[in-house]
């Protein structure tokens, strides 16, 4: 009987020994599958990072353009307001001078003539 037990133990050890390489092959296949999935995921991450960088660049460029346009509009509004203020002041001065019977343009002309006379005297 002892020989039968030895054969049975050898048989059990052999079956276990065969199972180990099969399990290793299965694990190796799983590792390769996981490795491929990781590589694919890393490529997707890189693509997403590049897309994010592109979008951020476009956003920054658009924001810069918007700031430039707003600055231009602000300066243009200030220029127009100054021109309107000067126009209003000139017309107000003209109204006052007309009430007093003096033309602002005539006064400017008289000043210019006097200035020319002074320059010719020197």
From TrEMBL:
Gene3D superfamilies: 1.10.287.3240
Transmembrane segments: none
Keyword field: Coiled coil, Ion transport, Transport
The UniProt record lists the keyword Transport: yes
GO molecular function: proton-transporting ATPase activity, rotational mechanism
Family in the record: Belongs to the V-ATPase D subunit family.
Name used for this protein in its record: Uncharacterized protein
């Amino acid at each position: 009987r002892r020989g039968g037990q030895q054969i049975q133990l050898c048989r059990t050890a052999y079956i276990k020994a065969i199972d180990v390489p099969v399990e290793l092959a299965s694990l190796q296949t799983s590792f390769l599958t996981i490795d491929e999935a990781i590589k694919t995921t890393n490529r997707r991450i890189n693509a997403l990072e590049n897309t994010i960088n592109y979008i951020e660049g476009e956003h920054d460029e658009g924001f810069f353009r918007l700031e430039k346009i707003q600055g231009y509009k602000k300066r243009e509004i200030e220029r127009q307001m100054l021109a309107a203020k000067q126009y209003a002041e000139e017309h107000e001065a003209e109204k006052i001078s007309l009430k007093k019977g003096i033309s602002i343009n005539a006064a400017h002309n008289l000043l210019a003539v006097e200035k020319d006379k002074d320059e010719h005297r020197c």
